[in-house]
Write a structure and sequence with these properties.
6-stranded mixed sheet; 5-stranded antiparallel sheet; 5 helices; 30% helix; globular
Length: 207
């Protein structure tokens, strides 16, 4: 999947150098070594790990990254509440499949159906080039829908054997992803709640 060409411009008005994520990729990492490193973090999911076929991506996220993913999650959850949709948040849970040599923590992930062993929806904020192919990891894990925030846009991928970019979410029917992107692009870091309230108000007017 060609995601990297979409990453060249900072998505929100942060200091691009300050808010770039720090990414390191280690090669030749065995599955037991990955699991040991992952488990050594204890209850924390920091730094974020993504493992694929012996390559281990280690990411320390920036303040800008955390702002985007947190506000996006709050908007998504507001939409689900207002539209009376099932949505269960699982945050940065670690997902692994030893047989398929793949594992990671999403920035945010959700289930929309009961008793799911993997998320129905995963969200990734991409601010820095490089790293492992996360869509391939998600494919091996069986996650049906993945959103990537890149360059102030949300790109949606649906799994049907392989991922295909689509224009609308199936996990959250009717959600206007361009509207979410516009809200985040102009939101002030200290006014997240105001942005969420304004979005909720707009949804109620639409209803």
């Amino acid at each position: 999947m060609e995601l990297m060409d979409r990453e060249r411009v900072p998505p929100v008005p942060f200091d691009w150098d300050r808010d770039r994520d720090q990414v390191v990729v280690l090669h030749g990492v065995t599955w037991p070594h990955y699991v040991a490193l992952s488990d050594a973090r204890g209850e924390s999911s920091r730094p974020l790990f993504a493992y694929l076929d012996g390559d281990l991506e280690i990411v320390t996220t920036s303040r800008g990254h955390e702002f985007i993913k947190t506000l996006l999650a709050r908007l998504v959850e507001t939409y689900a509440e207002e539209m009376n949709l099932r949505l269960n948040g699982l945050g940065e849970t670690t997902w692994r499949n030893k047989a398929r040599r793949a594992g990671l923590e999403a920035d945010e992930c959700y289930t929309v159906r009961k008793k799911r062993k993997v998320p129905d929806l995963a969200i990734e904020v991409v601010l820095t080039s490089g790293g492992v192919d996360k869509l391939e990891i998600y494919r091996r894990l069986g996650v049906r829908e993945v959103w990537f925030w890149i360059n102030a846009r949300v790109y949606v991928y649906r799994l049907n054997g392989k991922y295909k970019e689509v224009q609308a979410s199936v996990a959250l029917p009717g959600i206007d992803l361009d509207a979410l992107a516009r809200i985040i692009a102009v939101a002030d870091e200290d006014e997240q709640t105001e942005a969420v309230r304004a979005y909720r108000k707009s949804l109620r007017k639409r209803a």
